[in-house]
Write the structure tokens for this entry.
Amino acid sequence: MAGVEVLRVSSKSNPHAVAGAVAGIIRQGSCADVQVVGAGALNQAIKAVAIARGFVADTAIDIVCTPTFAEVAIDGEPRTALRLLIEDRAHERRPPAETA
């Protein structure tokens, strides 16, 4: 397994940019851990997951996400965040794509 990449998404994040990052991580055989605080950030993250599914659909990767809660510190204050573990449904860790 290549590991887990952490992405932090805010309400101002561009869902297409986040989707591109998620798709790239998944194509490399890793999982993405998307962390959000607040409804606006969660909205952008969920849109990004839906868009990323389309980005990798032609490669037979089926992206799924598992939500969990986490405690994070923001400006020294504890906050409850949602974490979305995004991975290939098959849980197969593909080797990174070779570049030509």
